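Q: What changes when zinc ion is included in the input?
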Amino acid sequence: MGYTPYYVGAVWTGYDIPQSLSAFGENPSLLVWDLIMTRLHQKYIDEANAGGEPLRKFEVAPGVITATYCRDSGQLVADACAHDPRQYRAEVGYFTRESVPKTTCQTHVMVLRDQYTGGIAYPATTCPSWNCQWTSLIRVENRSFPTEVYVVDAQYVYREMPSWATPAYWSGVAFFRNLLKDGEFCGSSYAVRPYNSYCVEHGIWNGWSPSTQTTDTGTADSGAGTSDAGASSDTGQSAGSTGTDGAGGSDGGANDDFEDWFGD
Ligand SMILES: [Zn+2]
Ligand SMILES: [Zn+2]
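A: The predicted holo structure follows.
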């Protein structure tokens, strides 16, 4: 659903049977909406470009103010938001004086990440400092599913590790995977090496590993695009090689993933 000063347009995309749309990288409704609306407005754009009537703009109602907010928290952007590898987490919104966000983002958390292995350094001192770069993840503590499900931003999620917890010693899962109970899942982006995986290459613990857990690997399909660092991967699960099954069967698998990381 979207509108301009000229038209209102709505596009719905779906199957008439229950089926996931996750095969689409981008929202197909958005693409169709954009295509049609662009064509509908072409004559106004051409006219304006030819010096005719300028393109109409919405009038801003009195009392409406703009503020730049973080898409993940809805709060005002903080420095940490800008370190999100997906970039562009800041958005301009329209608010009233009452509804405008008043606190800065508490969701983005700065963490050190080993940019050569592609794993989170935890504690920060486990990785060589020259490997490490500050990045930010989003603190989401309440995702809990009875089975693994695809969640587009799962690989950017952060959870606070209590002092007793050890990071997951497997590069195919989030570093905080050990915090989950048996049979509990927090969603997956189906990346071979999730952005929030632990730097097992330098890590010193051995906690959760795939051999000690019964996983139903819903992850087998969709060749997990090894969405590398920055890649604006809202569309994280496109294409990608299906060369490996992504679930390196043992701790040895970590090395396979490691090679994948450098593969391209
Ligand atoms: Zn933020
Ligand atoms: Zn490291």
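Observations recorded in class: Residues 206-264 have pLDDT under 50 and may be disordered.
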